[in-house]
UniProtKB/TrEMBL annotation:
Its main location: mitochondrion. Keywords: Electron transport, Membrane, Mitochondrion, Mitochondrion inner membrane, Respiratory chain, Transmembrane, Transmembrane helix, Transport. One of its GO terms (cellular component) is mitochondrial inner membrane. It holds the Pfam family UcrQ. Belongs to the UQCRQ/QCR8 family. This is Cytochrome b-c1 complex subunit 8. It is found in: Mitochondrion inner membrane. Component of the ubiquinol-cytochrome c oxidoreductase, a multisubunit transmembrane complex that is part of the mitochondrial electron transport chain which drives oxidative phosphorylation. The complex plays an important role in the uptake of multiple carbon sources present in different host niches. Component of the ubiquinol-cytochrome c oxidoreductase (cytochrome b-c1 complex, complex III, CIII), a multisubunit enzyme composed of 11 subunits. The complex is composed of 3 respiratory subunits cytochrome b, cytochrome c1 and Rieske protein UQCRFS1, 2 core protein subunits UQCRC1/QCR1 and UQCRC2/QCR2, and 6 low-molecular weight protein subunits UQCRH/QCR6, UQCRB/QCR7, UQCRQ/QCR8, UQCR10/QCR9, UQCR11/QCR10 and subunit 9, the cleavage product of Rieske protein UQCRFS1. One of its GO terms (biological process) is mitochondrial electron transport, ubiquinol to cytochrome c.
Length: 80
């Protein structure tokens, strides 16, 4: 008469394995494996991500200071 909900049709040469959500632990290994893994991945990527941001900040800082210097009359520091 038809398939019931959750029972897929059989397809040849394709095998599906699954574990019931009721048999899984939702936060298994979060503290013991998750945090050390996150720290390892952070340390592995920090030297690829941070240098472009540091260079961009230094260029931006230099540009704003140079722009402010060029806007002054005569190019010297103002006297108060």
């Amino acid at each position: 008469m038809g398939r019931h909900f959750g029972h897929l049709t059989t397809v040849r040469n394709i095998i599906y394995y699954s574990l019931s959500p009721f048999e899984q632990k939702a936060f298994a290994g979060v503290i013991s494996h998750g945090i050390p893994n996150m720290w390892r991945r952070f340390c592995g990527q920090v030297f690829r991500v941070v240098p472009p941001f540091v260079v961009a900040y230094l260029v931006y800082d230099w540009g704003t200071k140079d722009h402010a210097r060029r806007q002054r009359k005569g190019g010297i520091a103002p006297e108060h």
